Amino acid sequence: MKIGVIGTGNMGRILIEAFLEAKAVNPNELILTNRTLQKALDIQKEHAEVEVAASPEDVIRRATVILLCVKPLDIHPLLKQLSPYWTKDHCLISITSPITVQQLESIVPCHVVRVIPSITNRALSGASLITFGHRCSSHYQTYIKELFQKISTPCVIEQDITRIASDLASCGPAFFSYLLQRFIHAAVEKTNISREMATILTSEMIIGLGELLKKNVYTLPTLQEKVHVKGGITGEGLSVLEAELGELFEHVFERTHAKFNQEIEKIKQQFQN
């Protein structure tokens, strides 16, 4: 089955490289295009069997499953532009969170799926958030789950938890990357450790933490209990976190939800018009 990818920017390229590394698809099954065509050609340089199409229209003519990896406000005009080329046999996969499967189904006649990936998928890890449209056949539902299972843990979600699920699975790596950088910076500022050594130790710590969770050795609460010896040094550090963290993450989610709602309103206007 030919898979078309419209948009080979950051996330589009991450998915392409993950699928190829995991052997989820063969290179000759992929047809790529991008507004700046050179980005698609750069991928072809590394994977010679991948096909590059001159336009989105050409991708839809040649592929059955279409991964749409463009910015949210670009999707509606692009789908309208491509309206003569969609058939009922196509399966459209959108990777943007503010646009619902119902909105997509309102302007295309085909099977529709929304998959919100994570940068962690590039390591064939992390979650991918899947919402199926009402018209999406059981055949395509099985196919999409199996495809993304090769690079992630697929989680089927309902529309009402889209934003928070995306915050946790997709935005989370950026949030915790920032916190880890602050963790390293404080270590360097307050002690004689080099930034290189602090980065190595922190990176190895977080990788090890992930392995403990992956292997179900500990849950997050039991892991904290194991490290936290009563009256010990870890406890002193935790007391600072408890005192100073406050409602930091509540405020993070409030801000991301507010921005999400702004994007939803802009997209509503597009689809209503």
Automatic annotation (TrEMBL):
Name of the molecule in the record: Pyrroline-5-carboxylate reductase
| Domain Pyrroline-5-carboxylate reductase dimerisation residues, every copy | 163-260
State which pathway it belongs to. Amino-acid biosynthesis; L-proline biosynthesis; L-proline from L-glutamate 5-semialdehyde: step 1/1
| UniProt: NADP(+) binding residues | 6-11
Q: What is its EC number?
A: 1.5.1.2
Domain of life, per the record? Bacteria
Q: Which UniProt keywords apply?
A: Amino-acid biosynthesis, Cytoplasm, NADP, Oxidoreductase, Proline biosynthesis
| One GO cellular component term noted in the UniProt record for this chain | cytoplasm
Q: Does the keyword Amino-acid biosynthesis apply?
A: yes
- Keyword Transport on entry: no
Q: Which GO terms describe its molecular function?
A: pyrroline-5-carboxylate reductase activity
Organism the protein comes from:
Anoxybacteroides rupiense
